[in-house]
Each structure stands twice: as C-alpha cells, then as structure tokens.
Amino acid sequence: MTAAAPPAQALIVVDVQSAFVSGPAAVPGAPRLLERVEDLTARARTAGALVVHLQNDGPAGAADEPKTPGWELHLPVREGQREVVIRKPEDDGFKDTPLGELLTGMGIQALAVCGVMSEMCVSATARTALALGYRVVLPHDAHATYDIPAAAGISDVVPAAIVSRVAEWALGGEAEIVPRAADVAFVRPARERAASLSPVHQQIPPEQQPAQR
Question: Where is the chain membrane-spanning (predicted)?
C-alpha cells in the first residue's frame, strides 16, 4: 500500500448508481463511500482533471436495468469539457466504450478509480487501465462491494471489507493503493477533450437517447 501517489489527471467513478448505494440493497458503508466519492469528485473538478462517470447497463430485470430508478447515477453530474458520462455494457469500462479514445485524446497517463463493485467493475476497469499502460491509483476507502454469501461446504460469509481488500491485492504491484481518498491529488490533463469525440449521449442507441430540450 502506497502512502501517497503523484497526481492523477482523471477520476473514473465506477457505477455509483442508486441501486447500489441507496436503500436497503445498498453496499455496506454506502454513506461513507459516497462521502469519499464526492470528495474525490470535488477536488478533481477544482484541479481541472477529467471526471468520467461510468454507468452500467444491466440486463432486463436487473437492479441497474437502463431507464429504471436503480440505474440512475446517484450523485450530481456536471457534464462539460472535463466531465462526462459513459454508459458501459460490461464490467470493464473500456470494453465497447469511448473511454480509451477519450483518455488518449486528452493525453492522460494517470487515473484514480473509485466506486463499485470492488471485485467486479472497479477491478475490471483498473486491470485494463494497467494493461494499457496507465498509472492507476485506487484509494482503499473509496470503493466497495457486498458480502459474499456463505456456500455450504466451501466457506462462511466473506465480509465485504475483506472482498474489497482482496480485490486490491489481486491487481498486483503496479496498482497504487493508497489508504484514503484524501491522499489522492489531481492535476489538469495535457490536452482538452477533442471536439471530434462524440458526446456521451451519441454513444447511446438512438431509441434510448433523451429528448432534446
């Protein structure tokens, strides 16, 4: 675990959607997680870093099925030149999305990652970022998941905190794990977002795009 890390040029907020962070089905410690994510987001904005909100499109009937209340992003978004929403069909935020194009176009080399779930979408996105050569900073107190239920003949319940810690460890030595979100610093990217990159809503199938106002 790293005490501190050089500044990141982007913050990737993974799947902070209402189904996972509010109500009786929220991840354990959701209020604390939201405080950490809000702090990271506020400081990234102030520094002029890129903020990317990943929004998972779950299958029909899932808690995060598109256009259901649980699918909505739980925290306010300020879409603009340095803040975007990217919908994703898989755990990995890079797969079949414009995330890689966006980061490359802005000359970004270092990412901070936060959100849910630690061993699923957070891990998958961080792992691909590492494989692509990005620095990845993961604050320990800014990602979360659920308990793993007991399985007869295999294990008792595995607490969510243990699952999250194992997910960090499994990323290997290249990931920069810092104890607190407060330990993460941000800096402005090398370049502005390219005008040629399609706006986020153009990544959504036409029939799902919101009406223009």
Answer: none
